[in-house]
Amino acid sequence: AALTVRFLTRRFIGEYGDMEFIYSHNLTVDGREILLHIWDVPNSQEQAEDGSSEEKRIQWADSFVLVYSICDRASFNILPLKIQFIKAAKEGQSQEKVPIVIVGNKRDLHHARAVSSEEGRLLALSLDCGFYEVSAAE
Length: 138
Description:
alpha/beta; Rossmann fold; three-stranded parallel β-sheet
């Protein structure tokens, strides 16, 4: 949620509950106006739900940004399964590759790092995803 709000408002808010939100945002790219709808779901909520809710979100979306904390190995370790689930649901219907980006957040907390940048890059490469490391705080 912090990363989504930072992207949309350019402000950092450090504390969020485990709430699900859908945001809408207009963006101009290459002179074209694009309306983005962002369905922000905290990982803890996804784990508590059945697969049909997650399947509904996957069918709704055109692309995916999966965020993990570089300070939390568990948030990183669940990514391969989530990506496989997304690809099976989306790419099984068509021959098009589904756009997926893996984002390691909290780069500013390097002293508490539990997942190296190299691990993130290698995972993204092995799963044919984009990769970035960022700091919502900075």
